[in-house]
Each structure stands twice: as structure tokens, then as C-alpha cells.
């Protein structure tokens, strides 16, 4: 079974001088429609209760994340590790009822807490 590191290495190879011309030519802008299309295919797989297709389409969404992250790495902006670190930090920050001392009693309360923390974070941004 392949690992996340294998995927990272494959994406880097695809974007390298020895890689695929199509992959090398991609930009954030050119990948926008690909991401939208793949997200729609995830929706369709969920609507059709097609778990095999859902697994495949989630992989295609992940490909879009990986390609965008590789482009950013090449530009010295951020890496996939930065994306993962940022996501982990956000999940911990926005779930104080799981990772802290806050208590919620329902999914609605959990969502309200998430939204309140998100709004506070956005307000604190410069």
C-alpha cells in the first residue's frame, strides 16, 4: 500500500523536469475548475450512495490539494506539511469541547461554537 510520502514524491515527480508536461503547466488558476469539477463528483457519489466512486473522487480532490501545495512549495510559499499543520491547529482550536474544558450538549451547540470561534478569528485578522 502506498503512503502519504509516496503521494508527495509522485506529485513532485509529475511536476519535475522529468515529469508530465500537463502537470508542469498547471497553475493555481488552471486548477480551479478541476477542483470544482472533482468536488461536484464527490457530491454526485454521495447522492448516489456509491462508496467505491466516493473513494476515488475523494482521491481526485486530494490530488488537487497536492498539486496546489506542490506549486506553492516550488514557489517557496508553503508546503503540504504547512497545510496539514494549519488544519490540525484549526481543528484543535475550534473544538475546545473535545481538546479543552468546554462542554457542548448537541451537534448544534458544537456548530455554533465552531462558528463563534471562526468569526472571532476572522475579526482578529489584520
Question: What would you say this structure looks like, in words?
Answer:
The protein is mainly alpha-helical and 126 residues long. It is built from 7 helices and no strands. It has helices at 4-15, 21-25, 28-47, 51-74, 80-93, 96-99, 107-124. Helix 3 packs antiparallel against helix 4. The radius of gyration is 18 Å and the shape is globular. The model has no long low-confidence stretch (mean pLDDT 97).
Describe the structure concisely.
With 126 residues, the protein is mainly alpha-helical.
**What shape does the CA trace take?**
globular
Number of strands: 0
Strand residue content: under 5%
Unreliable runs, pLDDT <50, ≥5 residues?
Answer: none
Distance between the termini: 44 Å
Mean pLDDT, all residues: 97
Q: Helical amount among residues, as a percent range?
A: over 70%
Rg value: 18 Å
Largest sheet, strands/sense/barrel:
none
Number of helical regions: 7
Quaternary state of this entry equals single chain
SSE order, one letter for each helix or strand: HHHHHHH
Q: What structural category do the secondary elements indicate?
A: mainly alpha
Key phrases:
126 residues, mainly alpha, 7 helices, 77% helix, 0% strand, globular
